Amino acid sequence: MRINVEEAIEKLLANQLVAMPTETVYGLAARLTCPGAIKKIFEIKGRSLVNPLIIHVANPIDVCAYAIALPPHFDALTHAFWPGPLTLIVPIQLDLVDSIVRAGLPTAAFRMPSHPLTLHVIRAVGPLVMPSANLSGKPSSTDVKHVEMDFGLDFPVLDGGPCQEGVESTILHYRNSQWEIARLGALSATVFQPILGYEPIYQKIVKNDQIISPGQMFRHYAPQATLFLGDQKQITEADFIVGFTEKSYPVEKRVLYLGSLSNPHEVAENLYAVLRQLDFEKAKIAWVDMDFPSEGLWKTIAERLSRAGEK
Ligand code: TXA
Ligand code: MG
């Protein structure tokens, strides 16, 4: 059920869930102060309770209400990138954020999204927790249609059009006196250099036996089809190819185009729609062209495709 901003506000105030647009992907929102509704988010997504949620605020100042102390460069980072696709993990006062939100961790993740409709709603109802609006393990939703595919036509969704970024926010975590990337995302490491004086590194899953980003543990972004990632020898076995507009592929294969090799933003924007299209077309095996640059946003694209290909 497509709803307007007033209806979204009304439902959230009545402790119901609403799917909402952000510039990255659609989110599945509940108010931070409603643990009952937040529990429902985990249930309807089929999400593990050990995977914490991001708190979405309408102003950087709002984080101060929850934080014990703000890590260095917090103000400079939010000044440069909020509203926008950056999530910052901050140590918090435990009694102020229900443990279900942070999966029992002593930290919470914060982000100020830039979509005007969603900012308007947050200003009206207070901070929202929002995981991506997809069934756990599936590609995120970058359009209302994707939300409807996963949660049904009756589920309330605020239509904000297609998402501009197409991939989730970049998550930064301050550890051992440095910011590190806990999840690759819409902002690439290089953009932080002028602010931090260094490029934050990306730590994959575990460091010193501590989980940096719990989300890394779970299967993600995957279509039904088996994905073959870039090995030329496997191309004959595939019924579909996921590729780029300037490349040519065997004529007998059905090709779904991610976009141009000269435009990683376009590729990111189309990525989840193409993975979902494979499901829609009942593809069995899709061969993914992994022959693309390895810098910047391409790193995020490569990581998402690799994760989508994991079985
Ligand atoms: O772009 C986005 O970030 C989207 C939109 C809707 O804002 N949201 C999103 O949420 O991607 P979700 O739940 O799909 O991913 C949140 C990620 C997970 O990998 C989770 O483990 C991590 O954030 N996370 C949340 N709180 C954390 C914490 N306290 N410490 C470490 N990782 C955390
Ligand atoms: Mg997600």
Describe the structure.
This protein is an alpha/beta fold. The protein folds into two domains: 2-196, DHBP synthase; 226-309, Threonylcarbamoyl-AMP synthase, C-terminal domain (Rossmann fold), CATH 3.40.50.11030. The chain has ten helices and 17 strands. The chain has helices spanning 5-13, 35-45, 61-64, 74-81, 99-102, 116-125, 144-151, 193-196, 264-280, 297-309, and strands at 2-3, 18-20, 27-31, 54-56, 86-91, 107-111, 128-129, 157-158, 170-175, 178-183, 201-202, 206-207, 210-211, 226-229, 240-244, 254-259, 285-288. The strands form four sheets. Strands 2-3-7-4-6-5-9-10-11 form a nine-stranded mixed sheet, with helices on both faces. Strands 14-17-15-16 form a four-stranded parallel sheet. The protein has a two-stranded parallel sheet with strand order 1-8. A hairpin with a 2-residue loop joins strand 12 and strand 13 (210-211). Helix 1 (5-13) packs parallel to helix 6 (116-125). It starts with a strand and ends with a helix. The model has no long low-confidence stretch (mean pLDDT 95). Bound molecules: threonylcarbamoyladenylate (TXA) and magnesium ion (MG).
